Amino acid sequence: MADTGISSGSAVGSAALTNDVDADVSGASAIGTSPALGADSSAGVKSARRAVELLEAFGSNHDWLSLTDLHHYTGFPRSSLHGLLRTLRDVGWIESDDAGTRFRLGVKALICGTAYLDRDPVMPYATEALERLRDQIGYTCHFARLNGPDIVYLQTRESRTSAHLVSRVGRTLPAHATALGKALLSELADDELTAVLPKQLTALTELTITDREALRSELAFIRERGYSTERGQSSPNLACVAAVVPYRIPGTDAMSCSMPGERVTDAELLRVGSLLRDVAEDLSQQLRRAGIR
Amino acid sequence: MADTGISSGSAVGSAALTNDVDADVSGASAIGTSPALGADSSAGVKSARRAVELLEAFGSNHDWLSLTDLHHYTGFPRSSLHGLLRTLRDVGWIESDDAGTRFRLGVKALICGTAYLDRDPVMPYATEALERLRDQIGYTCHFARLNGPDIVYLQTRESRTSAHLVSRVGRTLPAHATALGKALLSELADDELTAVLPKQLTALTELTITDREALRSELAFIRERGYSTERGQSSPNLACVAAVVPYRIPGTDAMSCSMPGERVTDAELLRVGSLLRDVAEDLSQQLRRAGIR
DNA sequence: GGCCTTTGTTCACATATCTGAAGCAACAGG
DNA sequence: CCTGTTGCTTCAGATATGTGAACAAAGGCC
């Protein structure tokens, strides 16, 4: 895994809401999860872990959720959920309907979560760089960070002309399916890559790279050239170019441009690519000079 | 006991941290059940409450925080903090430095918190309306929501021309000091207003309204006219106009335009105001038709 | 280096949470 | 109106957490 000197727990892959637990809850309940996997989900303060796991459940489920929904999703006993939900609601991190029986994410989560952006000394510089970039090339520009097998969008400056934004601050996409992600993955050593990539490379479109070997050689090429490109791999009719901001080793952050897929020539893609690489390099120098890493 | 001079080696003693032992759980929602006893700070699942309170501490403190910093800030025993911090770190909601002794907010908080935006059925409509508005009048436009005595920015479309954004998704400002907030406060009944406003109306600039009576009469005027204006009350050299999106009663959401303060005439302010009111009304009708409330 | 202060970590007991099962409340179908 | 179903709430015992105090480690100051 990318060693940035920042340690944070590895994401224990939580599945979709279809995650049904109660196949056979009778009797012995869910006995200790098989110790096959090293990362035990039983360490630490139970209620604290459960509280944030609940928040994450709300984060990936945009409807009202009932106690029973959450029971199926998390596997926590209904009675335990009862207490947790009321607690989280009382502090404003989740909201309930009038009956107090359906829940969803609250504003506090937004307010607190977005503070991540203020906390990061990179952001002011990145924002400025994005604006320079957008003004130079006119396309929508993104700044994103690698988080495990995904990229997280941190900031966007939209095209002066085009319709509307594709992404949003805080949204994640599988790294292997985006120009941003491929640029960042290309920074990893072979075994780091293996460790980070999910078992199955999910396809966002028909063109998404889902073959590990194909991905590996693509990454090697990107590493050589210094920027990555992509046409319709993350979204139909969208072309993207991205370059790592090399102020850390391995790099964790990257910048990209998105443009309407059909109307963009290969030559244009390359032009933007090398420009992007230059802007990213400038930004890196600024950051290093400012002692940020 | 840190009886005097809590000089704490590093410069961590930032302003926000002055909140010494025994932090009160500042009442979040206006709907709050009558706090008969100090029960609200001791009810519910202790570790869960502490976990999110910790997250909020990180949300309002953008430096690395040590265990001792957090002890002073939250009043939780050091030994309890130890476990909580490790737990939160293991699940990725906070990050620690290499030594594992300083902490700050993690990416998970951003990812999960911003999901609030996806969860809200109003957002797609609001975004579209913002874009129409921006294209019509050219200024930077915001969509925000009232949360207790504050407004929270939910979405922004920036001016095609001006320099850079003043605000950010998820940021909060005191309602009484902004056009957005004044528009929303004008929806409240007199006693609701009293209940919501903080004891002391803090001033963001010299022009911020800090007198409750002055604010009340301003709100009455706004209620009549259907939109609010403001010059330099939230930020020097910035003028703002805002109108409530009346799809709920009382309204909770509003739209605004921000423009460079010096160059904008009063007439322009009013022109934008009535235009804004119209767009907000259109949006409301859309929302009501879509069954959103 | 020696001493002192500050900060992080560990431990065993007191205490609060977690939990399964039982108790209700709401609702649909006959 | 009764009855079965589903889902939320409550309760007392089993269990895991919270806590103060002791311990260890890091750093500052002569």
Rg measurement of chain A, Å: 21 Å
The percent range for strand residues of chain A is 15-25%
CATH class of the largest domain in chain A: Alpha Beta
Uncertain segments of chain A are 1-5, 9-40
- Judging from the principal axes of the Cα atoms, what is the shape of chain A? globular
H/E series of chain A: HEHHEEHHHEEEHHHEEEH
CATH-derived topology of the largest domain in chain A: Beta-Lactamase
The CA-CA distance between the termini of chain A, in Å, is: 17 Å
Count of strand segments of chain A: 9
What's the average pLDDT of chain A?
Answer: 85
Structural class of chain A: alpha+beta
Structural domains of chain A: how many:
2
Strand arrangement within the widest β-sheet of chain A reads 6-5-4-9-8-7
Major beta sheet of chain A, specifics? 6 strands, antiparallel
Give the second-level CATH assignment, the architecture of the largest domain in chain A.
2-Layer Sandwich
Query: For this entry, what is the oligomeric state of its chains?
Result: homodimer
